[in-house]
Design brief:
One of its GO terms (molecular function) is RNA binding. This protein is mainly alpha-helical and about 675 residues long. It has 36 helices and six strands.
């Protein structure tokens, strides 16, 4: 009767039966079976206190009694009580654990991160032979996976012949968390071979789709998705969300949208997956629009992951005003303490030119992870503040936070900003020994950039040719760009040939080569490059600058006359040029890469998109307010020079984010030290 009541969680009737047992209790009978059933009833009904009272009052307990009370404590989040009860069982009644108790104990060690005690249990499982029971094996795999020891989890998987879908679920989840994508793919193949598709549960489907997404293997993803649909899990909202996420990561945004639209009962998890898919497929504006639809039309409240995705979308545009609104929403919803939200705020602020605000968020964080430190270090480097970046890195080491691959990339970028060639090589050469990190292509590319910034172009070329690295087009373009900046035409021609062989379809590379020829006044080469571009149907991306004033975004192109205030803007530019020329500004006509008269070049220079945006901001913002301009291409030398003089003349701080970095102009100086 008690077992039947426990199945229906009927606590009230269970207490009636318990009272009846107390009334008719015979002191000469132990009633172990009945009392075990009562403990089980109270556990399943959530009354762990009553379960413990029944347990403590039992004159005689068997192994089942101990197992039920331990399982109850584990179920309701008291793993320390499980370990304490286990010690009592061993010390007081000398009982040996069975497979159920050992599995419960291993789960408690997993929840508490007690790896040493868990490994002791593993040793007992091997000695006693309990390792051959699936309960124990699954608990061991889950423990090692949760403790980030996926190699030991794989060893447990292979140590005994039998495995089920729960075994693979735990291992696959651990491999995904650790980024072991190759091993995860191998386990996926084993799941397909050893487990029938109809035995896959929702967790399996979510994990398997996660593997396909992280591998960006859309063909495999479609095969897996097809099998899932055939198995009848179309309506599972978590599986649907995982499918949306998978297609988004594989670049199939139309498929992600189709699945999203077909899902019923969308939750914040589903919306977050879809918004993240839009963000990863370069649709941040649409992500922001969909977020409004989620809140206003669907009445779905965002969680901390949704807010983080939206802040990242603001950083991509960048949309500082929208980001501030999201920050206020996060505070209103009590999410300002979540690490993932704080990290997204740091990223958004640093990408919008608000590095001081980013540092303020970082300093206010109660819990920081390695991503928090990486964002601050890279944010400082991106703003040209190399000394501050290296100071934060030293602070990170002092707080015993272990750096990762990305950390050292940000550190090398900081060395590049400061021109610290020797320090950069020291960090590169000590990565394996000091931090256990194998240098990758990105780290070596940073060294190339470091040598280039220091003007040591020949050394950079020798380094690239002598290093056992398979260089990509980005590395060679770094050297090509340096040849353009330092006007090393001879080396630039050699590097240009290499770059064009590697990626002949990149319009940006063609433009860089054309500009290099133009600076050397090799107009015949300029004509040849432009002719090749036309033949390949490659067009130069137009230079665009934009600025936020209030709730409006104003966009400018070079020589723009479409803006409603274009007449006043041009007058303002003429006035500014007249004011800064006596201060030392001299138009750099080499930046106007057309074979025309010098006077015409100077006139064209005056109306570059960033100058138009700066002039408009000076007209529309109060005196002393900082100016923030975004540009889609590299800022030209003349606009860079003009911005320095304008900042000095107007006593304004002017922040320009171009495709390479932030330029913070103040009192006639730029944070990039005139190298970008």
């Amino acid at each position: 009767l008690v077992k039947g009541l426990s199945q229906f969680n009927n606590l009230k009737a269970g207490k009636v039966v318990h009272a009846h047992l107390l009334v008719i209790d015979n002191p000469y009978r132990d009633r172990v079976i009945e009392r075990n059933s009562l403990i089980n009833l109270y556990v399943k009904c959530g009354d762990i206190r009553s379960a413990r009272l029944v347990f403590d009052q039992m004159p005689k307990k068997n192994i089942v009694s101990w197992g039920i009370i331990m399982a109850g404590y584990l179920r309701y989040g008291f793993p320390l009580e499980v370990i304490e009860k286990f010690r009592d069982m061993i010390r007081l009644v000398k009982l040996r654990p069975n497979k159920y108790i050992l599995a419960t104990l291993l789960s408690s060690c997993s929840n508490m991160g007690l790896l040493e005690q868990g490994m002791q249990c593993h040793g007992y499982a091997l000695k006693s032979g309990l390792i051959f029971h699936l309960y124990v094996k699954n608990a061991l795999v889950h423990m090692y996976s949760s403790c980030s020891l996926v190699k030991l989890a794989v060893q447990v998987l292979n140590s005994t012949p039998r495995s089920d879908i729960c075994t693979f679920n735990s291992l696959l989840n651990g491999l995904l968390d650790q980024g072991e994508f190759t091993e995860a793919l191998f386990i996926l193949k084993r799941i397909a071979a050893e487990c029938k598709y109809e035995n896959w549960d929702g967790i399996t489907c979510v994990n398997v789709l996660g593997v396909c997404g992280l591998l960006e293997d859309v063909i495999l993803g479609k095969q897996v998705h097809c099998r899932i649909l055939k198995s009848g899990k179309r309506s599972d909202i978590f599986v649907g969300s995982a499918a949306v996420d998978m297609y988004g990561k594989c670049g199939e945004i139309s498929s992600a949208r189709k699945i999203f639209d077909e899902l019923d009962g969308k939750t914040e998890v589903t919306w977050t997956a879809f918004l993240n898919a839009l963000f990863h497929n370069d649709c941040p504006e649409e992500a922001l629009q969909s977020f409004l639809e989620m809140k206003e039309l669907e009445h779905v409240s965002p969680n901390e992951y949704t807010i983080a995705v939206m802040l990242n979308s603001c950083a991509a545009i960048p949309a500082n005003g929208y980001g501030c609104s999201l920050h206020a929403l996060a505070v209103k919803m009590g999410m300002q303490g979540h690490t993932i939200v704080c990290n997204a705020l740091i990223y958004m602020d640093s990408r919008c030119g608000l590095i001081e605000d980013a540092i303020g968020v970082f300093n206010s964080m109660l819990q920081r992870d390695v991503i928090s430190w990486n964002l601050v270090i890279s944010g400082y480097a991106f703003h040209g503040l190399g000394k501050e970046a290296l100071h934060v890195f030293r602070q990170m080491l002092a707080e015993n936070v272990r750096p990762n691959y990305v950390t050292l990339l940000a550190v090398l970028s900081s060395c590049s900003v400061l021109g610290l060639v020797d320090d950069g090589f020291d960090y590169l050469n000590s990565m394996r020994e000091n931090f256990g990190i194998e240098p990758g292509l990105e780290h070596y590319t940073c060294i190339v950039g470091l040598l280039c910034r220091a003007g040591r172009l020949v050394e950079a070329e020798v380094f690239m040719k002598s290093s056992p690295v398979k260089w990509d087009v980005v590395s060679w373009r770094t050297l090509l760009s340096a040849c353009h900046v330092h006007r090393n035409y001879a080396l630039g021609e050699k590097v240009a040939d290499i770059v064009m062989q590697m990626n002949p379809d990149d319009a940006g590379t063609w433009i860089l080569i054309s500009n290099m020829h133009a600076k050397a006044k090799r107009w015949d080469k300029v004509v040849a490059v432009r002719s090749l571009m036309r033949g390949r149907r490659r067009k130069k991306e137009p230079g665009i600058s934009w600025i936020e004033i209030g709730n409006d975004t104003h966009v400018f192109v070079s020589d723009d006359d479409k803006h409603i205030d274009s007449v006043q803007i041009r007058e303002k530019i003429k006035s500014l040029i007249a004011e800064i020329k006596p201060l030392g500004y001299n138009p750099d006509c080499s930046c106007e890469l057309h074979d025309v008269e010098e006077e015409q070049k100077e006139d064209q220079l005056n109306y570059h998109s960033e100058k138009l945006a700066i002039a408009f901001a000076l007209m529309k913002t109060p005196p002393g307010a900082p100016i923030r301009v975004m540009k889609n291409l590299r800022m030209c030398d003349d606009c860079h020079s003009a911005a320095k003089f304008i900042s000095s003349f107007t006593k304004r701080r002017i922040i320009v984010r171009d495709v390479n970095r932030f330029h913070s102009f103040s009192n006639g100086c730029c944070s990039c030290a005139d190298y970008w």
